[in-house]
Amino acid sequence: MITDDLKLTGALSISLNDTLVHRTENMVVTAGKGWVTSRLKDTGSPSQMTHMGIGSGSTAAAAGNTTLVTQLDRQGLTVIGGTVSGSSIEYSCTFEAGEGTGAVIEAGIFNANNGGTMLARTVFDAGVVNKGSADKMTITWTVSIS
To answer: Is 2 within the bounds of a domain?
Structure first.
């Protein structure tokens, strides 16, 4: 019997005004795993990941999540579809001054500007990252298959 424990894992780093302020792990949700599986069959549908959202919801991440609890903002990824390196893919997004201002506690990756499929969600284990109206926040998120 062959056993192969294929896992999707991820981690992200958050910078505020170009200074690293937080690192945390994420959960690849059930809908995200389904999206990955569908990509093995057909690269044309469903669409690739295109956006990242941030929010103020503190409810723990769960496999059944399909959206952020309390979304503050959603912006397009720096590179649509992410950047692949070996068995990992990196997504990056910058929330400029005036975008997503507030107490940021959660983040997610999506394949649409509104709604869509959520690949992964995280709730920051160290708590709130306060983003002021003049702050720029950059999140770099790596999802790995191991």
So the answer is: no
Domain housing 130: 8-145
pLDDT digits (tens, 9 = 90+) for 120-130: 999 998 789 99
pLDDT, average across residues 75-97: 93
Give me the torsion for CA of 47, 48, 54, 59, rounded to 10°: 70
DSSP assigned state of 49: P
User: For the CA atoms of 96, 100, 104, 107, what is the dihedral angle to 10 degrees?
Assistant: -90
φ and ψ of 61, to 5 deg: -65, 140
Q: Which two tokens stand for residue 137?
A: 């926040």
pTM, two decimals, is: 0.88
- Say how far residue 78 (Cα) sits from the centre of its chain: 13
